[in-house]
Design brief:
The protein is α/β, with parallel strands linked by helices. Helices cover about 35% and strands about 15% of the residues. The structure holds 4'-deoxy-4'-aminopyridoxal-5'-phosphate. 4'-deoxy-4'-aminopyridoxal-5'-phosphate binds next to helix 5.
Length: about 400
Protein backbone atom coordinates (compact mmCIF):
# COMPACT_ATOMS: atom_id res chain seq x y z
CA UNK A 1 0.00 0.00 0.00
CA UNK A 2 1.25 3.48 -0.78
CA UNK A 3 1.13 6.45 1.53
CA UNK A 4 -1.07 8.12 -1.11
CA UNK A 5 -3.68 5.42 -0.55
CA UNK A 6 -3.35 5.93 3.18
CA UNK A 7 -3.85 9.68 2.78
CA UNK A 8 -6.87 9.13 0.56
CA UNK A 9 -8.88 6.71 2.63
CA UNK A 10 -7.57 6.67 6.17
CA UNK A 11 -8.48 9.51 8.50
CA UNK A 12 -5.09 10.47 9.85
CA UNK A 13 -4.56 12.34 13.07
CA UNK A 14 -1.78 14.64 11.89
CA UNK A 15 -0.15 15.96 8.73
CA UNK A 16 2.70 13.55 9.22
CA UNK A 17 2.68 11.34 6.14
CA UNK A 18 3.41 7.72 7.03
CA UNK A 19 6.12 6.13 4.93
CA UNK A 20 6.84 2.88 6.67
CA UNK A 21 4.79 0.11 5.07
CA UNK A 22 5.15 -2.69 7.61
CA UNK A 23 5.74 -6.18 6.25
CA UNK A 24 6.48 -7.86 9.56
CA UNK A 25 7.83 -7.25 13.04
CA UNK A 26 9.93 -9.57 15.11
CA UNK A 27 11.68 -9.08 18.45
CA UNK A 28 12.81 -5.46 18.60
CA UNK A 29 12.69 -4.93 14.83
CA UNK A 30 10.04 -3.72 12.42
CA UNK A 31 10.60 -4.58 8.73
CA UNK A 32 9.24 -2.86 5.64
CA UNK A 33 8.17 -4.50 2.36
CA UNK A 34 11.71 -4.22 0.99
CA UNK A 35 13.26 -5.95 3.98
CA UNK A 36 14.70 -2.79 5.58
CA UNK A 37 14.57 -2.90 9.33
CA UNK A 38 14.16 -0.41 12.15
CA UNK A 39 14.88 -0.83 15.85
CA UNK A 40 11.59 -0.17 17.58
CA UNK A 41 12.06 2.39 20.34
CA UNK A 42 8.31 2.98 20.66
CA UNK A 43 6.95 -0.54 21.24
CA UNK A 44 3.54 0.61 20.00
CA UNK A 45 3.75 2.98 22.99
CA UNK A 46 4.66 0.50 25.69
CA UNK A 47 2.62 -2.37 24.24
CA UNK A 48 5.26 -4.77 22.96
CA UNK A 49 7.12 -5.30 26.22
CA UNK A 50 7.92 -8.93 25.28
CA UNK A 51 8.95 -7.93 21.75
CA UNK A 52 7.09 -8.31 18.48
CA UNK A 53 5.64 -11.65 17.46
CA UNK A 54 6.94 -13.60 20.40
CA UNK A 55 6.41 -17.25 19.34
CA UNK A 56 4.47 -18.07 22.52
CA UNK A 57 2.12 -15.14 22.02
CA UNK A 58 1.60 -16.01 18.35
CA UNK A 59 0.91 -19.65 19.21
CA UNK A 60 -1.54 -18.70 21.97
CA UNK A 61 -3.44 -16.52 19.48
CA UNK A 62 -3.46 -19.24 16.83
CA UNK A 63 -4.59 -21.92 19.28
CA UNK A 64 -7.33 -19.75 20.73
CA UNK A 65 -8.52 -18.62 17.28
CA UNK A 66 -8.92 -22.27 16.33
CA UNK A 67 -11.00 -22.97 19.47
CA UNK A 68 -13.48 -20.08 19.72
CA UNK A 69 -13.61 -16.33 19.30
CA UNK A 70 -16.78 -14.95 20.80
CA UNK A 71 -19.16 -17.47 22.33
CA UNK A 72 -20.94 -14.88 24.47
CA UNK A 73 -20.44 -11.47 26.08
CA UNK A 74 -18.30 -10.71 29.11
CA UNK A 75 -19.05 -12.70 32.22
CA UNK A 76 -22.01 -14.71 30.92
CA UNK A 77 -20.06 -17.87 30.22
CA UNK A 78 -16.70 -19.14 31.40
CA UNK A 79 -13.94 -18.38 28.92
CA UNK A 80 -10.79 -20.01 30.22
CA UNK A 81 -8.20 -17.47 28.93
CA UNK A 82 -10.08 -14.63 30.65
CA UNK A 83 -10.41 -16.43 33.96
CA UNK A 84 -6.86 -17.77 33.88
CA UNK A 85 -5.42 -14.33 33.16
CA UNK A 86 -7.47 -12.66 35.89
CA UNK A 87 -6.31 -15.31 38.34
CA UNK A 88 -2.64 -14.83 37.36
CA UNK A 89 -2.84 -11.05 37.53
CA UNK A 90 -4.53 -10.89 40.90
CA UNK A 91 -2.06 -13.40 42.32
CA UNK A 92 0.92 -11.29 41.20
CA UNK A 93 -0.72 -8.04 42.31
CA UNK A 94 -1.42 -9.35 45.78
CA UNK A 95 -3.68 -8.11 48.51
CA UNK A 96 -6.55 -5.81 47.58
CA UNK A 97 -6.34 -6.71 43.93
CA UNK A 98 -8.53 -9.80 43.90
CA UNK A 99 -10.82 -9.07 40.99
CA UNK A 100 -10.25 -8.01 37.40
CA UNK A 101 -12.73 -6.49 34.98
CA UNK A 102 -11.49 -6.62 31.39
CA UNK A 103 -12.25 -3.94 28.80
CA UNK A 104 -11.20 -3.31 25.20
CA UNK A 105 -8.92 -0.35 25.80
CA UNK A 106 -7.29 1.86 28.37
CA UNK A 107 -9.76 4.72 27.93
CA UNK A 108 -12.63 2.35 28.55
CA UNK A 109 -11.02 0.99 31.71
CA UNK A 110 -10.52 4.56 32.96
CA UNK A 111 -14.19 5.35 32.25
CA UNK A 112 -15.38 2.33 34.16
CA UNK A 113 -13.08 2.95 37.11
CA UNK A 114 -14.31 6.55 37.44
CA UNK A 115 -17.93 5.37 37.39
CA UNK A 116 -17.25 2.73 40.03
CA UNK A 117 -15.43 5.25 42.24
CA UNK A 118 -18.40 7.62 42.15
CA UNK A 119 -20.95 4.96 42.92
CA UNK A 120 -18.84 3.27 45.62
CA UNK A 121 -18.14 6.47 47.53
CA UNK A 122 -21.45 8.18 46.78
CA UNK A 123 -19.38 11.28 45.95
CA UNK A 124 -19.12 13.23 42.74
CA UNK A 125 -15.79 15.01 42.47
CA UNK A 126 -13.01 13.50 40.34
CA UNK A 127 -9.48 14.82 40.86
CA UNK A 128 -6.61 14.29 38.44
CA UNK A 129 -3.43 16.06 37.39
CA UNK A 130 -2.22 18.68 34.99
CA UNK A 131 -0.10 17.00 32.34
CA UNK A 132 -1.86 13.63 32.72
CA UNK A 133 -3.21 11.61 29.82
CA UNK A 134 -5.96 9.09 30.55
CA UNK A 135 -7.63 8.58 27.19
CA UNK A 136 -9.64 9.99 24.33
CA UNK A 137 -13.25 9.28 25.29
CA UNK A 138 -15.30 12.06 26.87
CA UNK A 139 -14.92 10.92 30.46
CA UNK A 140 -11.26 9.95 30.26
CA UNK A 141 -10.50 13.18 28.43
CA UNK A 142 -12.36 15.15 31.10
CA UNK A 143 -9.79 13.98 33.64
CA UNK A 144 -6.81 14.44 31.32
CA UNK A 145 -4.63 17.45 31.85
CA UNK A 146 -3.34 18.22 28.38
CA UNK A 147 -5.30 21.34 27.36
CA UNK A 148 -4.38 21.32 23.66
CA UNK A 149 -5.86 17.82 23.23
CA UNK A 150 -9.15 18.97 24.75
CA UNK A 151 -9.62 22.11 22.72
CA UNK A 152 -13.05 22.36 21.09
CA UNK A 153 -14.34 19.14 22.65
CA UNK A 154 -16.00 20.62 25.73
CA UNK A 155 -18.10 20.72 27.76
CA UNK A 156 -16.53 17.94 29.75
CA UNK A 157 -17.70 16.01 32.82
CA UNK A 158 -18.76 18.30 35.64
CA UNK A 159 -17.06 18.27 39.03
CA UNK A 160 -13.64 17.37 37.74
CA UNK A 161 -10.64 19.16 39.18
CA UNK A 162 -7.13 19.20 37.72
CA UNK A 163 -4.39 19.93 40.22
CA UNK A 164 -0.65 20.43 39.53
CA UNK A 165 1.41 17.22 39.65
CA UNK A 166 4.18 17.07 42.25
CA UNK A 167 2.71 20.02 44.14
CA UNK A 168 2.38 18.87 47.76
CA UNK A 169 0.30 21.88 48.79
CA UNK A 170 -2.31 21.22 46.11
CA UNK A 171 -3.10 17.87 47.76
CA UNK A 172 -5.08 19.88 50.29
CA UNK A 173 -7.77 20.16 47.62
CA UNK A 174 -8.59 16.47 48.14
CA UNK A 175 -11.53 16.54 50.54
CA UNK A 176 -14.45 14.44 51.78
CA UNK A 177 -16.28 15.54 48.62
CA UNK A 178 -13.71 13.75 46.44
CA UNK A 179 -14.76 10.40 45.02
CA UNK A 180 -11.33 9.55 43.67
CA UNK A 181 -7.95 10.80 42.64
CA UNK A 182 -6.61 9.39 39.37
CA UNK A 183 -2.86 9.43 38.87
CA UNK A 184 -0.16 8.05 36.58
CA UNK A 185 2.95 6.91 38.47
CA UNK A 186 5.05 8.49 35.72
CA UNK A 187 3.24 10.88 33.42
CA UNK A 188 3.78 9.16 30.08
CA UNK A 189 2.16 11.34 27.42
CA UNK A 190 3.05 14.38 29.52
CA UNK A 191 6.77 13.80 28.85
CA UNK A 192 7.95 11.03 31.20
CA UNK A 193 7.46 13.24 34.25
CA UNK A 194 8.67 11.48 37.40
CA UNK A 195 6.98 11.83 40.78
CA UNK A 196 9.03 13.82 43.32
CA UNK A 197 10.40 11.76 46.23
CA UNK A 198 7.63 11.09 48.74
CA UNK A 199 4.94 12.68 46.58
CA UNK A 200 2.87 9.62 45.73
CA UNK A 201 2.88 8.20 49.28
CA UNK A 202 1.77 11.64 50.53
CA UNK A 203 -0.98 11.64 47.92
CA UNK A 204 -2.05 8.14 48.95
CA UNK A 205 -2.15 9.15 52.62
CA UNK A 206 -4.23 12.23 51.80
CA UNK A 207 -6.69 10.05 49.84
CA UNK A 208 -7.00 7.66 52.79
CA UNK A 209 -7.58 10.55 55.18
CA UNK A 210 -10.31 12.04 52.98
CA UNK A 211 -11.89 8.67 52.15
CA UNK A 212 -11.24 9.20 48.44
CA UNK A 213 -10.28 6.21 46.31
CA UNK A 214 -6.81 6.18 44.78
CA UNK A 215 -6.99 5.19 41.11
CA UNK A 216 -3.61 4.41 39.60
CA UNK A 217 -3.27 4.46 35.82
CA UNK A 218 -0.48 2.03 34.96
CA UNK A 219 -1.44 1.74 31.32
CA UNK A 220 2.06 2.81 30.27
CA UNK A 221 4.10 1.98 33.34
CA UNK A 222 2.87 -1.57 33.91
CA UNK A 223 4.31 -4.96 33.01
CA UNK A 224 7.94 -4.44 33.87
CA UNK A 225 8.43 -1.22 31.95
CA UNK A 226 9.96 0.72 34.83
CA UNK A 227 11.95 -2.09 36.45
CA UNK A 228 9.34 -3.64 38.74
CA UNK A 229 6.35 -5.60 37.52
CA UNK A 230 4.18 -2.56 38.27
CA UNK A 231 5.41 0.96 38.98
CA UNK A 232 3.22 1.51 42.04
CA UNK A 233 5.37 -1.13 43.72
CA UNK A 234 8.52 1.02 43.63
CA UNK A 235 6.45 4.15 44.20
CA UNK A 236 5.33 2.63 47.51
CA UNK A 237 1.59 3.11 47.05
CA UNK A 238 -1.33 0.72 47.11
CA UNK A 239 -4.04 1.57 44.57
CA UNK A 240 -7.69 1.12 45.42
CA UNK A 241 -8.24 0.60 41.71
CA UNK A 242 -5.41 -0.23 39.32
CA UNK A 243 -5.98 0.54 35.65
CA UNK A 244 -4.16 -1.46 32.97
CA UNK A 245 -4.02 -1.69 29.17
CA UNK A 246 -1.34 -1.58 26.45
CA UNK A 247 1.12 -4.40 27.35
CA UNK A 248 -1.73 -6.17 29.18
CA UNK A 249 -2.93 -7.56 25.83
CA UNK A 250 0.43 -8.70 24.47
CA UNK A 251 -0.33 -6.85 21.22
CA UNK A 252 -4.10 -7.32 21.09
CA UNK A 253 -6.62 -4.78 22.41
CA UNK A 254 -7.19 -5.31 26.11
CA UNK A 255 -7.72 -3.07 29.12
CA UNK A 256 -8.67 -3.80 32.71
CA UNK A 257 -9.35 -2.34 36.09
CA UNK A 258 -8.44 -4.33 39.13
CA UNK A 259 -9.62 -3.88 42.69
CA UNK A 260 -10.91 -5.54 45.82
CA UNK A 261 -14.18 -7.45 45.88
CA UNK A 262 -16.01 -4.84 47.96
CA UNK A 263 -15.41 -2.20 45.26
CA UNK A 264 -16.02 -4.55 42.36
CA UNK A 265 -19.39 -5.51 43.83
CA UNK A 266 -20.61 -2.10 42.62
CA UNK A 267 -20.98 -3.46 39.09
CA UNK A 268 -22.55 -6.73 40.25
CA UNK A 269 -25.54 -5.54 42.30
CA UNK A 270 -28.12 -2.75 42.62
CA UNK A 271 -28.65 -3.21 39.76
CA UNK A 272 -26.86 -6.13 38.16
CA UNK A 273 -24.95 -5.40 34.93
CA UNK A 274 -23.48 -2.26 36.45
CA UNK A 275 -20.89 -1.98 33.70
CA UNK A 276 -21.09 -4.06 30.56
CA UNK A 277 -19.13 -4.74 27.41
CA UNK A 278 -19.57 -6.97 24.38
CA UNK A 279 -15.96 -7.65 23.49
CA UNK A 280 -14.00 -6.57 26.59
CA UNK A 281 -11.56 -9.26 27.64
CA UNK A 282 -12.39 -11.33 24.58
CA UNK A 283 -10.77 -14.75 24.63
CA UNK A 284 -8.30 -14.00 21.83
CA UNK A 285 -6.95 -10.87 23.54
CA UNK A 286 -6.96 -12.59 26.93
CA UNK A 287 -5.03 -15.57 25.53
CA UNK A 288 -2.47 -13.24 23.92
CA UNK A 289 -2.15 -11.20 27.09
CA UNK A 290 -1.79 -14.24 29.31
CA UNK A 291 0.93 -15.67 27.05
CA UNK A 292 2.79 -12.34 27.08
CA UNK A 293 2.49 -12.15 30.86
CA UNK A 294 3.91 -15.65 31.22
CA UNK A 295 6.81 -14.73 28.93
CA UNK A 296 7.46 -11.62 31.03
CA UNK A 297 7.58 -13.67 34.22
CA UNK A 298 9.35 -16.79 32.97
CA UNK A 299 11.98 -14.95 30.92
CA UNK A 300 12.47 -12.60 33.90
CA UNK A 301 12.34 -9.60 31.59
CA UNK A 302 11.69 -7.12 34.38
CA UNK A 303 15.02 -8.03 35.97
CA UNK A 304 16.83 -7.02 32.76
CA UNK A 305 15.47 -3.48 32.86
CA UNK A 306 17.98 -1.81 35.26
CA UNK A 307 21.02 -2.97 33.27
CA UNK A 308 19.43 -1.77 30.01
CA UNK A 309 18.56 1.54 31.65
CA UNK A 310 22.17 1.89 32.70
CA UNK A 311 23.37 1.54 29.09
CA UNK A 312 20.89 4.20 28.02
CA UNK A 313 22.01 6.60 30.74
CA UNK A 314 25.69 5.99 30.15
CA UNK A 315 25.57 6.26 26.40
CA UNK A 316 23.14 9.12 25.86
CA UNK A 317 25.38 12.05 26.61
CA UNK A 318 25.36 14.81 24.04
CA UNK A 319 25.30 18.62 24.13
CA UNK A 320 21.94 18.61 22.33
CA UNK A 321 20.33 16.79 25.28
CA UNK A 322 18.71 19.08 27.84
CA UNK A 323 17.43 16.28 30.05
CA UNK A 324 17.03 12.53 30.11
CA UNK A 325 14.24 11.67 32.50
CA UNK A 326 12.18 8.63 33.39
CA UNK A 327 12.77 5.22 34.87
CA UNK A 328 13.59 1.77 33.58
CA UNK A 329 12.77 1.69 29.90
CA UNK A 330 10.33 4.59 29.94
CA UNK A 331 12.40 7.66 29.20
CA UNK A 332 11.99 11.09 27.78
CA UNK A 333 14.89 12.42 25.76
CA UNK A 334 14.46 16.16 25.99
CA UNK A 335 16.19 18.72 23.81
CA UNK A 336 16.51 22.48 24.11
CA UNK A 337 13.97 23.08 21.33
CA UNK A 338 11.37 21.24 19.28
CA UNK A 339 13.31 21.58 16.00
CA UNK A 340 16.11 19.42 17.40
CA UNK A 341 13.53 16.82 18.48
CA UNK A 342 11.94 16.71 15.02
CA UNK A 343 15.31 16.62 13.27
CA UNK A 344 16.63 13.87 15.54
CA UNK A 345 13.50 11.79 15.09
CA UNK A 346 13.63 12.14 11.29
CA UNK A 347 17.37 11.40 11.08
CA UNK A 348 17.07 8.43 13.45
CA UNK A 349 14.35 7.06 11.19
CA UNK A 350 16.70 7.34 8.19
CA UNK A 351 19.37 5.57 10.20
CA UNK A 352 17.00 2.76 11.26
CA UNK A 353 15.35 3.65 14.55
CA UNK A 354 11.68 4.36 15.31
CA UNK A 355 10.97 6.97 17.96
CA UNK A 356 8.01 9.14 18.83
CA UNK A 357 7.27 12.50 20.42
CA UNK A 358 5.05 13.23 23.43
CA UNK A 359 1.53 14.63 23.63
CA UNK A 360 2.07 17.72 25.71
CA UNK A 361 5.62 18.78 24.87
CA UNK A 362 7.26 19.09 21.48
CA UNK A 363 10.91 19.19 22.42
CA UNK A 364 11.32 15.55 23.38
CA UNK A 365 11.23 11.95 22.20
CA UNK A 366 9.99 8.87 24.00
CA UNK A 367 12.43 6.06 24.49
CA UNK A 368 10.57 2.84 25.27
CA UNK A 369 12.00 -0.23 23.52
CA UNK A 370 10.76 -3.78 24.13
CA UNK A 371 12.16 -5.19 27.38
CA UNK A 372 13.65 -8.02 25.31
CA UNK A 373 16.20 -5.71 23.66
CA UNK A 374 19.74 -7.14 23.86
CA UNK A 375 22.70 -5.16 25.14
CA UNK A 376 24.09 -5.08 21.59
CA UNK A 377 20.81 -3.77 20.18
CA UNK A 378 20.67 -1.14 22.92
CA UNK A 379 24.16 0.05 21.97
CA UNK A 380 23.14 0.06 18.30
CA UNK A 381 20.12 2.22 19.15
CA UNK A 382 22.24 4.63 21.20
CA UNK A 383 24.74 4.87 18.29
CA UNK A 384 21.86 5.82 15.98
CA UNK A 385 20.41 8.38 18.38
CA UNK A 386 23.80 10.01 18.95
CA UNK A 387 24.53 10.14 15.22
CA UNK A 388 21.04 11.55 14.62
CA UNK A 389 21.72 14.36 17.10
CA UNK A 390 24.72 15.30 14.95
CA UNK A 391 27.90 17.16 15.80
N1 LIG B 1 -3.77 6.24 30.13
C1 LIG B 1 -2.49 6.30 29.76
C2 LIG B 1 -1.43 6.59 30.79
C3 LIG B 1 -2.12 6.09 28.43
O1 LIG B 1 -0.86 6.16 28.06
C4 LIG B 1 -3.13 5.79 27.48
C5 LIG B 1 -2.80 5.54 26.02
N2 LIG B 1 -1.72 6.22 25.52
C6 LIG B 1 -4.45 5.73 27.91
C7 LIG B 1 -4.75 5.95 29.24
C8 LIG B 1 -5.58 5.42 26.95
O2 LIG B 1 -5.50 4.10 26.53
P1 LIG B 1 -6.14 3.64 25.14
O3 LIG B 1 -5.41 4.35 24.05
O4 LIG B 1 -5.95 2.15 25.12
O5 LIG B 1 -7.58 4.00 25.20
Amino acid sequence: MSNQQALQHLALTSDFVPELDVARAEGVFVFDQKGRRWIDFISGICVNNVGHSHPRVVKAIQDQAARYLHPHVYGEVIMTPQVAYAERLSRFLGEGMEQVYFTNSGSEAVEAALKVAKKFTGRRQLISFEGAYHGSTHGSMSVSGIPSAKEGYGPFLPETLLIPYNDFDALGQITTETACVLVEVIQGGGGAVMPSPGYLPTLAARCREAGALLLVDEIQTGFGRTGTLFAHQWAGIQPDILILAKALGGGLPLGAFVSRREIMDIIRRNPALGHITTFGGGPLAAAAGLAAFEVLIEEQLTERVPELEEILLERLRHPAIAELRGKGLLYGLLFHDKETAYRTQARAYELGLLSLGFLSIEHGLRLCPPLTISHGEMHMACDILLEAMGE
